[in-house]
Amino acid sequence: SYLTWDQIKILDQVLTEAIPIHGRGNFPTLEVKPKDIIRMAKEQLIEKQIHVRDIRLNGSSASHILVKHNGTSYKDLDIIFGVELPSELELQVVKEAVFNCLLDLLPKCVNKQKITAQTMKDAYVQKMVRVSADHDCWSLISLSNNNGKNVELKFVSLLRQQFEFSVDSFQIILDSILAIDRASDRPLTQDCHPAIITESMYGDFNQAMDHLKYRLIFTRNPEEIRGGGLLKYSNLLVRDFKPADEAEIKSLERYMCSRFFIDFPDVAEQQRKIESYLHNHFIGEEKSKYDYLMTLRGVVNKSTVCLMGHKRRQTLNMITILALKVLGEQNIIPNAANVTCYYQPAPYISDRNFSSYYIAHGQPPVFYQLYP
């Protein structure tokens, strides 16, 4: 499918609006237009003999351009470079290319000769991921933005599962608009603009568009997605998206939970992942964090079948405590009718000299338990 003129105007605005890349410590904030850093990264890759098949805008930012009127928003700017990465060496070259771009963006007064790649990583990179397996070969470098609007540069040779849900399965191929922008400084007009193709990795473009327009949730094979798509699914629910198929979603929820607990088996790992998701996706939406956590808790509570009872209780209690922490940070006291607190008696109370105390034998030590 091709973008309409109205959609092209939104895309042009997204690509030309400067985004701050915030530096840590004494490093300055870099104001950069997405189209500029895309061009710089591509030039660096070509210079280092890495073939670039195409460049695409991916995920929620692409969805925002396709259907802006229903309130679809985006946080990260997700750019995919289709590249050939036959070995670990090319993955290292990709990282160096991005750091060189950041180095070029530093003010001219900065002495760049003594700045190492590790220094640039520590100063400007939010996260880095590198995957090299049979059906997956890709690298992600996410550049820091304190407002949660990270520029995410993804270099993909192979990617088995290219989307989590149909509503974020869209990709807009940017090569034509980048080429015309480089060839001419004249603004785009309705009579003079490139043809821009958009695709859905879901497969059925029209059905995926219906899901996006009507805020419907659908996915395939969540057991093949890292984390099962569980955290994204709960995010969609809290933003008033509804399952496209109520009967099928019950089965899919079980797969989501199972894969999440396979990838993050330890409660501490689960907590770090959830806290990281909150930090990256709810900046400026502090009041939504509690609703999100309780929605997530509800899904885990009803759809987790792969954990033993005590493991499941540990996870539920961890999510509950996170929710209470969020309320505490906002100085909100929950309705006491919905809170049950259990306190484990001190060990000495079981001494026979304290027989006047009543001990509820068999009650597990649960510190907080909320019911939505």
TrEMBL record:
The keyword Transferase applies. It holds the Pfam family NTP_transf_7. It catalyses: RNA(n) + ATP = RNA(n)-3'-adenine ribonucleotide + diphosphate. The keyword DNA repair does not apply. GO terms for molecular function: poly(A) RNA polymerase activity; RNA binding. InterPro entries: TET5 (IPR012937). Its EC number is 2.7.7.19. Keywords: Transferase. GO terms for biological process: mRNA stabilization. It comes from the Eukaryota. Belongs to the TENT family. This is polynucleotide adenylyltransferase.
